[in-house]
Amino acid sequence: MEDLSSKDDSPRVLEVLEALKQASHELQAHPSPNSDEVNSSSAINALLELETESDTILSKDPNLSTLSQHLSNLKALVETLKNSRRHHSIRSFLTRRVSTHSIARVAGSIESEIQAWIDRESIETLTRGLREQPKFNNEDELIKLLTQLENRVSEGFNRELQDLVLKSKLFSYLETILCDPNCSKRIREHCAFAIGALIRFNKDVFVGQVLMGPTIGSLVTMGSSASIKVLCSLIRSIKSPLVDEIESLGNIPKIIKFLDSQDLEIKVLAMDCVLEIGYFGRKEAIEAMLKEGLIKKLVELQRSELGGDLIDMGRNGGKNDNVKFENNEGVGDGVGVGVGGVEGKRERREKRFLEMHPFASCVARFAVQLEVGEGLRQRERRAFKQEILVRVREACVSDAEAATIVAEVLWGSSP
């Protein structure tokens, strides 16, 4: 068994811990090996080897006393199971049943304790790496640790893990690196992904730090596809309060400007962000977007090769044919809502069309976000709808173009 007590080889330590966790997981699935396999089971051997060296490995960490006890219990249960294999009485049979059940239960406890150990090692190593930036020169290892954190918190809420994150002040270190233009762009982007994952992990605990700190401004200033993607996910998680903060910081014009980017991915993600803001934004945010000429930009995008009109895909144009255009991730995927086989085929056809033409019917999709969203009062929705129609007519280059887009705005939302 490799010495796990050294902090100088943390990546290797984590690999060994992951192997031990996998061994305990396998033991839960197969707690009752045949008599010939009791001594040769790799899962049992790995864990019993850890138990044998527990005095030198586990005794140095007071957090591991519970794990040490579980390993001692496992050793006793395995001995009991081995002894029961030598007899064929009813009592031995019952002993084997009880032992295998107990082995599975103890293996589950061992897995939980090892996962807690992994969490402590990972967060301690990650925090140290972020704190030592830019002196910590192993960029790939740091990104690996950031990805592990993102994946770990994405598994669901865990109070012990949350306590580790809070005690280590990890969120502050992530934010510091995100906001430091001298740090590697890759590391900054992965810090952004980790922040987004922590918000999804427990919004109530971490949302205050996002709203009060420089995260939002830094994401917008970075202006990369990764940072805009994280910004969209934060809007979906935090909703109107985050949009209020974006507006108050004066970042709406910067987001609208991303629609002019030469990078198609950034332009598409900016469209998603606009739709998210439209759904959750209050009056001030919507006014700020319209003031920046959003409708004119959307008309131009709809006119482009990547645009088009969903109304031309078989819609009859009647008011009973209400269409719910929505965005690509948060509320929907830009597909009309329908029921039954015909509507289902139409939805699939529209989805394929939108994959190839991400700006199709984008004016109507934005208008519907305001119509069905959470940020506006009913009278504000009506007023903005009229303003959108006016701006559409001003931006269109022909009566035919204006008629098509106006029809989509009117028929794509509730009457």
From TrEMBL:
Gene3D superfamilies recorded: Leucine-rich Repeat Variant
Residues passing through the membrane, by range: none
Matching PANTHER family: ARMADILLO-TYPE FOLD PROTEIN-RELATED, ATAXIN-10 DOMAIN-CONTAINING PROTEIN
Protein name per its UniProtKB record: Armadillo repeat-containing protein
Organism annotation: Quercus lobata
